Amino acid sequence: MGNESEYFNKVYDKFWSVQSRRYGYAPYEQNLVRLIAKSNPGKVFEVGIGTGWPIGTALKEKGIVVDGCDLAESSVMSARKELGNEEGIWVGDVMSYRGSEQWDTIYCVRASWYIPDFYDTLLKMISMTKSRGYLVFDVMDENSPCCLKIRWSALKEKYYRFLGIHVNEVYGRHFINISKMKKFLKKNGLDYQCWSERKITGNKDRCSTPKVVFLCRKEN
Ligand SMILES: C[S@@+](CC[C@H](N)C(=O)[O-])C[C@H]1O[C@@H](n2cnc3c(N)ncnc32)[C@H](O)[C@@H]1O
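Above: query sequence and S-adenosylmethionine SMILES. Below: predicted holo structure tokens.
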């Protein structure tokens, strides 16, 4: 995680503070908020909270307390201010959480593809969710045309490195096999529903809509 942590702290946080404003609070983000707020949670936890805007902000406006964590210190500072929560938002990977608190809903949105061991992260998130509580997350489908294209580039980069040609490290390519994810959720006692990004946004372009959103309920 060393280089990755440095990347999120020194490079990605600046990029994201601008990029998240460009994306705005569009139908995709609004749908995530609707799913997270659906069960009327009192307190939620976001893995990879970023600056807290716009998703945490919209939840806060609904009277929900938003806790969370992120690798990037400057993003955490912004999120604390944005969401008026000094205590519950901290710097670090969720895997380092050693407390015993459980939340009504835990979510990880627009961040799973930056997390190398997302299945381990999900197990941790399940352990931090109350019985009959909810999890919401989105992943990038490894078999979508968009991800296939990116995986092809990654293969080419690997070959260039093999030839000794320098290529910058690229983060955010941890794509997920959707069938494997569904089996994993069932095996771990979660009921789920899922929707493609295309269905949510109405964007029919298969090359720019790789995401799949999951809403899960812990059975006990
Ligand atoms: C695209 S941003 C999304 C932020 C926020 N979830 C949102 O939707 O606005 C991805 C965030 O994940 C964070 N991140 C990446 N890997 C992480 C990890 N292992 N643990 C916690 N946060 C992580 C990054 O620092 C970044 O803030």
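Residues 8, 12, 16, 20, 47-50, 55, 69-72, 75, 93-94, 109-111, 114-115 surround S-adenosylmethionine (CB under 6 Å).
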